[in-house]
Amino acid sequence: MSFAKILLVNLKHNFLIHFLIAVAVAVLTPLVFSISALDSRASAQPLECLLPFIGAFLMIPVFMPEQNPEIRDVIRSKKTDYLLVCLIRVIYSVVAVALITGIFVFVMRYCECNVTWKHFVGSFASSLFMGTTGFAVAGLSGSVSAGYMTSMVYYAANIGLKDKLGICYLFSMYSGEKFSGKYLLILISLIIISLVFFILKKFNK
């Protein structure tokens, strides 16, 4: 099966509903937090406190279609590598996280908020990392539900432990912490994703 066909089939059958849910999170965020005429620090609140959920809704379902062992066995019997299909899903999911985040930041700028490239990168980093925590658990455990639970527990830990999480603290921009941690968060996310695929390949899960 060609790359284009794999992409189109997965976008239509496995991605659209999760993408719409992620878009809904972005659309509903202004109902919870103001996005009008905010200063730099205040602008980080909606970007870090609600938008990270789009990462969870887009990254965790990567392994959902094959959660049923029988379906997974059928997929693995095909010529196309099962993990290659999952990798394609990861790529378009990460692109979607960046796209929704970018559009949201653009809307905030249009609403006269003091947002910059750093706000986009910071929000993207938090969304990607929150999604990656659940993605890793879902992939290694074979349970998407466990993946969602992990991301929710991690989010709750950010509220309870605050900056004790160090660079893994989701709300660092709003709290006035060093921005450099956001770049490390993206790097850690990519390393975790790579490790998950390595482990799945190694143990043929």
Q: What form results from the Cα inertia axes?
A: globular
Give the mean pLDDT. Answer: 88
Helix content: over 70%
Count of discrete domains: 1
Radius of gyration (CA) equals: 17 Å
Helical segment count: 9
Strand percentage lies at under 5%
Largest sheet: none
The helix-and-strand class reads: mainly alpha
Strand tally, please?
0
Poorly predicted parts: none
Q: State the end-to-end CA separation.
A: 22 Å
Secondary-structure element order, N to C = HHHHHHHHH
Helices and strands in order:
Elements: H1 3-32, H2 40-49, H3 52-59, H4 69-76, H5 82-110, H6 117-141, H7 144-161, H8 172-175, H9 180-203
Would you write up a description of this structure?
- With 205 residues, this protein is mainly alpha-helical.
- It is built from nine helices and no strands.
- Helix 1 runs antiparallel to helix 3, helix 3 packs parallel to helix 6 and helix 5 packs antiparallel against helix 6.
Task: Note the main attributes of this structure.
single chain; 9 helices; globular; mainly alpha; 205 residues
Describe the structure in brief.
With 205 residues, the protein is mostly helical. 76% of the residues lie in helices and 0% in strands.
